[in-house]
Amino acid sequence: MINMTAKETIQAGKAILGIEFGSTRIKAVLIDEDNEPIAQGSHEWENQLVDGLWTYSTEAVWYGLQDCYAELRKDVQKQYDCEIEALAAIGFSAMMHGYMAFNKDQQILVPFRTWRNTNTGKAAAELSQLFNYNIPLRWSISHLYQCILDNEEHVADIKYLTTLAGYVHWQVTGEFVLGVGDASGMIPVDPATKTYDAEMVRKFDELIAPKGYSWKLLDILPKSLNAGENAGFLTPEGAMKLDVSGHLKPGCPVCPPEGDAGTGMVATNAVKQRTGNVSAGTSSFSMIVLEKPLSKPYEMIDMVTTPDGSLVAMVHCNNCTSDINAWVGLFKEYQQLLGIEVDMNELYGKLFNKALEGETDCGGLMAYNYVSGEPVTGLAEGRPMFVRSAGDKFNLANFMRAHLYGAIGVLKIGNDILLKEEKIKVDRITGHGGYFKTPVVGQRMLAAALNSPISVMETAGEGGAWGIALLAAYLIKKNGKNLADYLEDVVFAGNTGTSVAPTAEDVAGFEKYIENYKRCLPIEQAAVDNK
Question: What are the residue boundaries of the Carbohydrate kinase FGGY C-terminal domain, all occurrences included (predicted)?
C-alpha cells in the first residue's frame, strides 16, 4: 500500500477528526491513516459563575465548536492549500459529569452545571449510602437528585439528561447515546453488562417514586455504548453546526462520545489492566485500570470505566496548575517591570527546573492550590494559599518545588489508598497535560508522589482531542481487535515513552511534605470559613 501524503488523505476524505471540549480550551485534531496528527484548531473559553454555579452557555458551546473547526480549516488551508470536504470518521469528547437537562423539545431547562460545582453534597452522601458505592459530587446522578431535594420545578419536565459530550453528539447525529466511560460518570456502570447498574437504577426509581414524576431514570439517560459500536452518522444539520462555511459533507460515522478521562486513557495507551495514567492540567485525575474491584467503597475514589468497559479507580482533583500559573504570571509582571522581554515557555522552563534544586521536603514550605473546592480533602470552597513559618528555608527553589508538590498533593492522598492500602499493582503509569510540559520535572515530582516510574510520550501532548480521534479511527478500523490490543499493536506499536523512576530521597521528601500538608489542612479550612 502506498502511503498518502497528508494533503491526499484530506482530499480523499480519509482523515479522521477528534474534538474535545476541555475546561479552558476546545481543541480539534485531524489525523491521517497512520493515526498521526496532521492539522489542528482550537478555541479558548472560560466557565462563568452564574447564580453561584459554574456553567458554560449552550451558545458558548456552539460558537466555540464552530470557531475551533474554523481554525482547523485555516490550518489545513495554510499547510496543504486544500479544503476539508469529507471525513472518514469523527469523535466528540468533553469534560465529564455535570448536568445538562432538556425538555421534550430539546430545550435546555437550566444552565449546564459543570463538574466543578460542589453544591451536591447532601445528594451525593445520601446516594452513596443508598448504593453502598461512592457517588461523587460532580456525577450527573448527584446533580439530578440534588435538584429533586431542592424541589426545582424543571425536574418534572426532563425528557433527556446527558453530559456535554453526549449533548454535542446528539445534536450533530440525532443519536441520544453515550460512550460507556462517560456514562459511568452519570450513574455507576456494571462491568459485566457494560451499561447502567440495574440495581442502583431500581433503588433510585424507588427513592424518587413519591415525587410522582412521569419519567423513570432509564427513560431520560442516553444509551450506553462500548468503544467501536455504531453511534450514528453526521447529519446535514450536524455538518452545518460544525462547519458553518458549508464545505463539510454529512454522512461520516461518529464514534460514541466520551469523557476526557476516557480519551486521556486512550491517548496514553492506558486501557489495559494494570496500566494507569495521570492527567494534570487545570484539574488533575489519575486512572488505574483494575484487575478486580476494590475491597470496599472509598469517598476519595470514584469507580468509572475505560471506553471499552473495564473497571477503573479514579482519583479526581478539582485543582492542579491554576495556582502555579498565577505565580508564574507574577514573575512575568516582575520581568516586564524591569523591561525584560518575556518568553513564557522559557519562564516556565527556568522556574520548573529551579524546583529540582530545592530540598526534597521543600524546606518546610507548603502550597495549597485550591482555586475551587476540593472534595478529596473535604473543602467545599477554595482559597489558594502559600504557608511557611519563620524558620523555614524560603528561597526560589523550595518555593517552586512546594507549588509543584502542592499541585499533585491531593492526587497523592487519594492514590495512597490504592497503592498502600489496597495494594493495587500497576505496571505502567503515563503522565500527560501541562504539568509535564517541561521535560523531566513534572515526571520526577509525580514519581516521588506515587513512588512509581512515570512515563511521558511525545504524543501525549496532543491530549484528549487526539484520544477521541483514535476512538473514531477504532470505530472504522478495529478489524476484530479489542481496544487495548488495537492501541498496543496498531497505534503505539510498543512505544511506552520516556520513563523517570523515583529516587529514595525524593520519595522520603514528598512523604514528609504530605504529612505537613495534611496536618495543616485546618489552616485552609479556616481561610474558607473566615473570608
Answer: 277-474
In a domain, residue 72? The reply is no
> Residue 275 in contact with residue 152, Cβ under 8 Å?
no
Rounded CA-CA distance 23/144 in Å is: 22
3 state SS for 18-65: EEEECCCEEEEEEECCCCCEEEEEEEECCCEEECCEEECCHHHHHHHH
Helix (H) or strand (E) holding 179, with range, is strand 177-179
Q: Which residue, 364, 450, 452, is CA-closest to 401? A: 364
Determine, yes or no, domain membership for 237.
no
Per residue in 140-160, pLDDT tens? 999 999 999 999 999 999 999
Q: Where are the alpha helices (DSSP H) in 259-395?
A: 260-267, 322-337, 344-355
Rounded distance between C-alpha atoms, residue 331 and residue 376, angstroms: 30
Orientation angle between helical segments 198-208 and 121-131, nearest 10 degrees: 120
For residue 330, pLDDT over 90 is answered with: yes
pLDDT tens by residue, 273-297: 999 999 898 889 899 999 988 999 9
Interior CA angle at 491 toward 487 and 494, to 5°? 80
pLDDT value of position 281: 86
The CATH number covering residue 283 comes to 3.30.420.40
What confidence tier does 25 reach under pLDDT thresholds 50, 70, 90? very high
The answer to whether position 33 is within a domain reads: no
Instruction: List, in sequence order, every residue forming a beta bridge with 277; answer none if it has no partner.
Output: 287, 430
- Reported as a pLDDT band with limits 50, 70 and 90, residue 1 is very low
Average pLDDT over residues 464-469: 94
**From CA 494, how far away is CA 497, in angstroms rounded?**
9
Does residue 426 fall inside a structural domain? Answer: yes
Q: Average pLDDT, whole number, for the chain?
A: 95
* CA pseudo-torsion sign 228, 231, 236, 240: negative
- Per-residue pLDDT of 503-513, as tens digits, reads 999 999 999 99
Residue range(s) defining the domain that contains residue 428: 270-456+501-531
Domain count, the chain: 1
Q: Which residues contact 149 (CB under 8 A, 6 or more apart)?
A: 122, 123
Q: How far apart are CA 108 and CA 157, in angstroms?
A: 10
